[in-house]
Amino acid sequence: MVVVLKPQTSREQMLVLAENLKKLGVNVAITEGVTGYVLGILGDTSKIDQERVELFPEVEKVMRVQEPYKKANRKFHPNDTIVDICGRQIGGNKLAIIAGPCSVETPEQITSVANSVKNSGAGLLRGGAFKPRTSPYAFQGLEDEGLELLKVARANTGLPIVTEIMSPKYVEIFEEAVDVVQVGARNMQNFDLLKEVGKMSKPILLKRGLANTIEEWLMSAEYIMASGNENVILCERGIRTYETYTRNTLDISAIPAIKKLSHLPIIVDPSHAAGRREMVLPLSLAAIAAGADGLIVEVHNDPANAKCDGPQSLTPEQFQDLMNRIKPIAESVGREL
Ligand code: PEP
Ligand code: MN
């Protein structure tokens, strides 16, 4: 962190300020420039609130030279993190393909979709039991019964299950029941939830918030990691822009950005990004080509009658086609399916 002082600051004022800054647990390197003093703050600046430093009357400007996230930062952890889920890896050479319905609806529906995505080569099963719906009158998910149905689908197929947690009060139940705990876009900055899932032993799939920057997203990963859980998988799922033709705008550039800034794996959700079935394939191809570590895709056995997100859900046949089509793209970027 670099602190530029106002030109009229005297040497005495500067020394008092430097002492005050040292009380925050850092070292201060003093430089005298032509127009005034510049203080270099050295050490762990992650606990220093930039706005607090800006409030000192002698301070003209404060600039961070290092990112505020440490555990999620590639600088301190140069090698890619590979997250292990029941022997399946996310972040290694093999792509992770997670597929399944938006929400668990009936025993027949989840069993049928689980079997078909497995046969097409998916490595994990998704399905929401607790649904974050915009309307309180919309289907909220089967809740605990949905979790039970996911467990049955896992027992039948062997596919690990990925499902969304909405409240810290479900941490114990999820710890026991699920293989990957999804924190949805709407909860990306639910800091109480992040701290609680940070105490879990299960990997966390952290979706990017609807209107959050990459740095805010990595700070949310940092919350989980700072609580003790370093198995975080990031998921780009589209962000809000002025475009309304698509549900969201898939930020493809987030993939190389995350790869540069962080060692955590990143997967892409083309379904919630597009909101339109016909775009799921091209966005998946683009995501893999850009270096994503996998995909999470919505698939439904009867999209026209789905209780949630039918318009963006692929049929099992379309999902099979997607798997066929991403294979050569994966190979062309040195990855395997
Ligand atoms: C979902 O994956 O079912 C979901 C609700 O996604 P998001 O949080 O990205 O909107
Ligand atoms: Mn959905």
TrEMBL record:
The lineage of its organism: Bacteria, Bacillati, Bacillota, Clostridia, Eubacteriales. It comes from the Bacteria. InterPro entries: Aldolase_TIM, Class-I_DAHP_synthase, DAHP1/KDSA, DAHP_snth_FXD, DAHP_syn_2. SUPFAM superfamilies: Aldolase. Residues 1-67 form the DAHP synthase ferredoxin-like domain. This is Phospho-2-dehydro-3-deoxyheptonate aldolase. GO terms for biological process: aromatic amino acid family biosynthetic process. Keywords: Transferase.
